[in-house]
Specification:
Elements lengths: L5 H15 L13 E2 L3 E3 L4 E3 L9 H16 L1
Antiparallel strand pairs: 1-2, 2-3
Family: Belongs to the eukaryotic ribosomal protein eL43 family.
InterPro entries: Ribosomal_eL37/eL43, Ribosomal_eL43, Ribosomal_zn-bd
Pfam family, one: Ribosomal_L37ae
Length: about 70
């Protein structure tokens, strides 16, 4: 046990930082992706359904890799 929830505050801080960081748009390469209800880039109107706290998830990366491999087979 820690005093006054130190480990909880540290974990919450990590999530808050990753949520409010601007990520690189996969469509145009600008660093303007922000978290609203979904991940959005306001200048182009692009929306991405990513993870709850981060822009991309490990399972999403696996799916992108599988799709790219299938496209190369054609």
């Amino acid at each position: 046990r820690t005093c006054s929830g130190t480990s909880l505050r540290k974990g919450g801080r990590k999530l808050k930082i990753s949520q409010h960081t601007q990520y690189t748009c996969s469509f145009c390469g600008k660093t303007q992706m922000k978290k609203w209800a979904t991940w959005q880039q306001r200048s182009q109107g692009k929306m991405v359904a990513g993870g709850a706290w981060s822009y991309s998830t490990p399972s999403g990366a696996t799916v992108k890799l599988a799709i790219r491999c299938l496209k190369e087979l054609r």
